[in-house]
Write the structure tokens for this entry.
Amino acid sequence: MRRLAIVIALLGSVRATGCMCVGDFGMCHGFKSADTAIFVGRVTAIKIDREVDIGRFHTQRVTFAIREAFRSGRGKKVTVTSPWGDDCSFEFRLRESYLLYVSRDGGRYVAGGCNRILRVDAAGDEIAHLRRLALAPPGAAIVGTLKTYAADRNFMSRANSPLAGCKITLDGPLGAHVVATDKDGRYSVVGLPPGLYRLSVTLPDDYLPAASPDVTLERDGCAEVDLRASRKPDQAGKAPRVAD
């Protein structure tokens, strides 16, 4: 029985949220969307409009000092307007830092319940992927991580351990591309032509066999493929080995 779990976020997939969002609002969708600004910012001010208008939500204006910009977000400071006090609002806190995907509305920046917003301390993998994508040559890209399964089966858990030095092979229209995961279990392949790609993973001997997922990339498309591996039952609790 294979126990490599795979999470794939592709353009066009659907994610359910409390605000009944339609469409994919993940990393790849945001990076490829022309009307999205992506940046890491630290909250320096929050102003809440508490006036009640029938049919309109309260709003908050949150000012960020930009620490790193991946798409737009020009200058050193950005003010973002977003809902406040309802199911679609995000609770920002002063002096904390976030990774934000915000919509551009003319000269304004707007974030609703469907915009992607992450605390920086929980977005290390995603920020690393964005840095790679921002410098990538033209073409499609596949990025992701390879980590061991945590006992709580939650892939976002900090209890997951990255697998470094493992080979990720992509068989596609122009043959095979082989990369190795870095010390944080991350990998990326950029500048790819469109088409069908099959991913395969070379794991150490003390791990269960890995599945081989298929990914279809559009022209200049993007896919995030996160891989989760399990060790053999008799190897549980032992220190992981690095693949040759």
Remarks:
- Confidence is low (pLDDT under 50) at residues 10-18.
- Helices lie at 27-32, 124-134.
- The radius of gyration is 20 Å.
- The chain has two helices and 14 strands.
